[in-house]
Each structure stands twice: as C-alpha cells, then as structure tokens.
C-alpha cells in the first residue's frame, strides 16, 4: 500500500500566508480625548513635596524695614520695651531703665505684662495708653511679633502698640 499525502503542502503554505497578511482595520475613536490623570497625580505629588519641604516659621521670613515716615511718639507717654539681637535666634529684651527681662519666654511674658502694668499705672495724670517696642534692625520680625502678641493678649484696653527700628 502506498500512502499518498492527503493535502498538498503547497496549499498549506498559501493558506498561512493569506492569514498573516489579513489585518482588521483599527476602529477610530469618536472623540480624541487626552487622559490627564497622570498630570494630576504629578501636580499633587509636587504640592505635597513643597508643603512638606517648606518652612512655616514666621521668624525666618524677613527683617523689620527701616522707617521712612512716622509719627513722633513720646517715650514719656508710653511703656517702652527694647529688643536687641542676642545671638543665633535669641533676643535680649530690656526695660526703659536698661534692666533685662528673663531669657525664658514663659517667664519673660509674665515679666513683660507686669512691667507694662506698672508703667501704665504710674503715669500720674499723663495719658499712658500705649506701648512702644524699639527694635534693632537685626532683630527678627517673629521676635517682635511675639512680644507684641504678649502685650496684645494681656491688655485689651491699650489703644496703640508702636514698633520702631533703630535708624542707621
């Protein structure tokens, strides 16, 4: 018995080539839209990075500007507090007579309140209703603001708190 091939090999090759050449056409989208999801992810990652990496310390923001114009305020009519740089991030806070307040901020706050209370009470007929804070130009803004906040929180009836800087 002789065996004869059931299919011709040349026919098989032609069928494979025809299948390889046949491709379905790509369906076109009705609307061409851009996916912005990755861009939104990157924006939020950058936002989180800058919030975490930035410093929110108001003492590092800037320095007190020099005064160009201002009103003349008498030290006789004010409780006067001097602020001088004390090295690094510390300041030296002094009374009008030159004596220093404590360097501990909590103790210093109570001493400032006592000092301003005494100064306002001993005005003897003069209308002492405001506080004058005299700062050196190298004092950080946050330190002046801290002392001003101590005074503002303790004395609601004070009309004005004046801030002055030492001129060059």
Automatic annotation (TrEMBL):
GO terms for cellular component: plasma membrane. Residues 1-20 are annotated as: Disordered. GO terms for molecular function: transmembrane transporter activity. It is found in: Cell membrane. It comes from the Bacteria. The keyword Disulfide bond does not apply. The chain crosses the membrane at residues 36-53. GO terms for biological process: protein transport. InterPro entries: ExbD (IPR003400). Keywords: Cell membrane, Membrane, Protein transport, Transmembrane, Transmembrane helix, Transport. It is a single-pass membrane protein; Single-pass type II membrane protein. Its main location: membrane. Belongs to the ExbD/TolR family. This is Colicin uptake protein TolR.
């Amino acid at each position: 018995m002789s065996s004869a091939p059931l299919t011709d090999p040349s026919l098989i090759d032609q069928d494979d080539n025809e299948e390889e050449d046949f491709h379905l056409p790509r369906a076109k989208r009705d609307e061409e839209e851009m996916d912005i999801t990755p861009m939104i992810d990157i924006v939020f990652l950058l936002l989180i990075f800058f919030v975490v990496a930035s410093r929110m310390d108001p003492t590092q923001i800037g320095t007190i500007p020099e005064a160009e114009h201002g009103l003349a305020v008498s030290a006789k009519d004010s409780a006067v507090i001097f602020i001088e740089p004390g090295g690094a991030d510390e300041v030296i806070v002094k009374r009008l007579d030159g004596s220093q307040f404590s360097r501990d901020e909590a103790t210093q706050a109570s001493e400032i309140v006592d000092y301003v209370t005494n100064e306002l009470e001993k005005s003897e007929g003069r209308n002492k209703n405001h506080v004058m804070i005299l700062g050196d130009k190298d004092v950080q803004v946050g330190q002046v603001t801290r002392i001003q906040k101590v005074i503002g929180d303790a004395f609601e009836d004070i009309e004005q708190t004046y801030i002055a800087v030492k001129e060059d």
